[in-house]
Amino acid sequence: MSQNRPRIRVRGLTKIFGDDAGPALSLLQAGRDRNEVLKATGAVVGLQDVSFDIAEGEILVVMGLSGSGKSTCLRCINRLIEPTAGQVMVDDVDVTTLGERELLAFRRTRFGMVFQQFALFPHRTIQRNVEYGLEVQGVPVAQRRERALAAIETVGLAGWDQHYPAQLSGGMQQRAGLARALALDPDILLMDEAFSALDPLIRRDMQQELVALQRRLKKTIVFVSHDLDEAIALGGRIVLMKDGRVVQEGTAADFLAAPADEYVRRFVEHIDVLGVVTAGDAMRAPAAVKPWFSTAAAALASLTQSGEPVVTVVCQEGRFQGTVDAETLKGAGETELRFLLSDKDACVPEGATLNDAVSKLASGRGEIAVVGSGRELKGVIANADLVAALARRRQEAGPQTAH
Amino acid sequence: MAFEIPQIPLAEWCDIALDWATDHFSGVTRAMSAVVGTGIEATTDFLVGLPPWLVIAAFGLIVWRLTTVRIALWSVLGFLFLWNVELWRATLQSLVLVLVSTLFALAIGIPIGISAALSKRFWRVASPALDMMQTMPSFVYLIPAIPFFGLGAVSASFATIVFAMPPTIRLTALGILQTPPMLVEAADAFGSTKWQKLFKIQLPLAIPTIMAGINQTIMLALSMVVIAAMIGAGGLGGEVWKAIQRLEAGMGFQAGIAIVVLAVILDRITQHIARRLRTDTEHG
């Protein structure tokens, strides 16, 4: 799977703030924790032995509260902050060993960075801002103008190129910030709390657009965030940090299902379960399935026996066709089910979240089907199943288990 | 007293240092003085030779282009007044001296300010030196100026440059150091070299602050040019000096008010430019 070849490998990354990191580093390596190091040497440990991989074309969210070291970690990747120890491998290049010139060249071509407060240059127009990275590379004027305008269009800011940053709203400024990073056509985007300064609604739009953009452009993205909902919305793997260390790595669902410790448990406590648990997790085997050529009378018998609200109808190949409820069956006698079908859309893909399932359930007749990629029937979710799944998750994720 | 603490021969040391410098450098500085002096005189003579109304009109036009009609009109009125009280020649002498000194102060001060901003070590040396330059009574600069540059306009200009330069240095450094750290970080993240960062981001953003420094430098230059009349710089200060020697209070005040008028004109113009640059960088 070349798709999953690690693009960036972070190994044993450690950052100690202060003039003399040596003694602090040896204390750390001797197994002391950051508080002991602070007491003994006065040096602040920003990152301690952080390791993780980022696959090509992946969005990795580095998450943690303020002071957890997540932004430091991001800045160590392009060495805006000089790591004290450890390696950052981008493909086969160890960024930490690059000389000054090589580092500049690397930053110019490989990394695009987006900042929390946008960090647009106030004295330059949007176009000149977006051009900036190309300008320092020495790209000829006509060419960089063209690439800048293309990037501006990609982020939906066409027509604003001659405005100054102060004339744009926060959301538009961050689009410009994104365009500035994209204009370089880097393969790696480093995004530092990129949407945290935006209004919630705009933030959600930007998250969705970033995901769409990522699908199209296939960038490798390292996204720093303090917001678990954001991490879930971006849909990738999460590296959760605390006190400069990685606490757990995995998807939000992993965190819910098997939190590494109390901290992770508390972190995911208020997670929107509906957005994380999939239909596949919540479904059960259907009790009333009938092929589409069976008669209404036979279906009615099976329905009464099973206690299901509807009969789930499939074709010969087991593909979901629709549902029929008891009302319809009662007056239909020997009519074949395929003529009685309703709610052909009462199904969700296996990988869909419960959010999708809930809206389908709300508009349907109390039960929906869960299907595979070829619409083959995998299971069903009735109202009661949804409640049961939520209760199960609550229990797993809750701070104390009542039973 | 059993112990007699010897006096520190500070004055002698200063003399020795100055003598040494005079011996070695005065040849060069005298030559420079001749060139610059001729330039200053020629410019003044040229302006004095033109009809005053033409100079005033041209000046008004330039001010109007740089600032607003209002400021231009007041400037023209101010100059008409100076012409009217027959201080036209003195005004031009002072103005030329102020402008020449300011140009030199900027040419030397801005690079020093940039270096101070870029190197902490340089700043540690420069900062106390600047404090000294500014707190030293300005008359003192006049004394060593004479052996180097001779009596007259060039010595006055030299003392003026030394006295008026510190605000430009300070505010240039301040303006650069005040670049928001996130913008510096952004510039770094895109792989800017130190010089690209300086010329594309830090200096453009520092211009309003630097302009405020230039305003202060011009004001200090004007005050020094007046004092420099004591070593034969002439101009409006010379008129005051003459009035003192002859105990003519009326003449003294007239020249004094003329200086105030010139100061107000220069101040309004530079302040307006500084303010406009500030809003430019903030709002595009």
TrEMBL record, chain A:
Keywords: ATP-binding, Cell inner membrane, Cell membrane, Membrane, Nucleotide-binding, Transport
Organism field: Ancylobacter mangrovi
Keyword Endoplasmic reticulum: no
GO molecular function, one term: ABC-type quaternary ammonium compound transporting activity
Topological type in the membrane: Peripheral membrane protein
E.C. number(s) listed in UniProt: 7.6.2.9
Enzyme class: translocase
Family: Belongs to the ABC transporter superfamily.
Protein's name according to its UniProt entry: Quaternary amine transport ATP-binding protein
TrEMBL record, chain B:
TM annotation in the entry: 53-83, 95-118, 138-164, 205-231, 251-269
An annotated GO BP: glycine betaine transport
Keywords linked to the UniProt accession: Cell membrane, Membrane, Transmembrane, Transmembrane helix, Transport
Principal subcellular localization: membrane
Topology in the lipid bilayer: Multi-pass membrane protein
GO cellular component, as recorded: ATP-binding cassette (ABC) transporter complex
Family annotation (PROSITE patterns): ABC_TM1
Matches recorded under CDD domains: TM_PBP2 (cd06261)
Domain ABC transmembrane type-1: 91-270
Record GO terms (molecular function): amine transmembrane transporter activity; carnitine transmembrane transporter activity
Highest taxon listed in the record's lineage: Bacteria
Subcellular location(s) per record: Cell membrane
Stated family: Belongs to the binding-protein-dependent transport system permease family.
Protein name (record): Proline/glycine betaine ABC transporter permease
Lineage of the species this protein comes from: Bacteria, Pseudomonadati, Pseudomonadota, Alphaproteobacteria, Hyphomicrobiales
